[in-house]
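In practice, a research group might receive sequence data for several interacting partners and want a quick structural hypothesis before committing to experiments. The following worked case mirrors that situation: the sequences arrive first, and a predicted assembly follows.
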Amino acid sequence: MNCEDFGQRLSQGGSLDEAAREHCESCVGCRRMMRALEAAEASIPDAGRLEAIQAQLAEGLQPVRPLPSDGQMAAWGLAAFVLLAAASLVFGYRGFEEQSVGQRWAYFGTIGAAAVLLTGSAIQQMVPGARRNWNPALLTLSCVCGLAALVYLLFGTTNLATDTVLGIPCFAVGLLCTTVGGLAGYLLVRQGYALSPMRAGLVTGGLAGLTGVVVLAVHCPILEAGHIIVWHIGPMVIGGLAGAAAGGWWSRSEKRRGSRPEVHL
Amino acid sequence: MEPTSANATPDELRELLRTLPEAQRQTILMLKVAGMSLEEVARASGTSVGAVKQKAHRAYQALRKLLGGEK
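A structural hypothesis for the assembly, expressed as tokens:
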């Protein structure tokens, strides 16, 4: 047996066999390593001390409700998104009518994909220890830029971005949807425990802003990239930034009260 | 960093472990210092048992090189 084989055997776990023990006795490097690891194991506090530490930690603990599964929470989040979007139908759906079939598939399909990604990221943010597949800031930015690029390709531009008479009503609707969606998102995310409230706020605010994008996609008949990017997608950017700011404020106020430890992610 | 004696102390081991990549360091700490099983380490780190074994193997290789002596 050589050192490579010994390392493989050690990494399998369990006790060492005869061949491994013989190698350890004959190899200086492996013997040193084993003694160092055994010394580290011996430095663990005894059972009595560990129980005392555990009792100290348990003093300040309070019961929490168990979280629903990730799938359930994602379903709730997406259902809220769809409901808010569907509620906009009361204002009419001229925007939907103005789009061609291909434009509808591309635009609403992309919005749907962004909603799924942002919802998944929000769920990950609210569950401590959940695997975080994406950086929430990069994800939100990618969704915003991706939507903007798609809109530019689909609808082209005639420089309506600066037309505030047409733009401000859409912007107001977008902000209203972002606010309502943000409150709904807050109610969902507070069911868990976000290790980084700022990141949770960023992605939840972006998702809330996305509800405004889909509402306006259904309702607004102005199919021009400049108008859509500034007055429809703009509130999504504001939603993300406002969510991050709110999360940062929440985190600082909890730290001042001493109810949130420092977490370095 | 070379250990000051033939047998590395826990403090020296901790210093050596700091030179390892984060994933390998965490694996060794959980396996050897905290005494967790392979399955427990896999669950805690959100990976498979196979991935834990691989990280542990690489960590042992690196530690052995740092402590000196390999054949």
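Before designing any experiment, note the following. Chain A touches chain B at residues 2-4, 7-8, 10-13, 27-30, 32-33, 35-37, 39-44, 129, 131 (CB under 8 Å). The CA atoms of residues 210 and 236 of chain A lie 6 Å apart.
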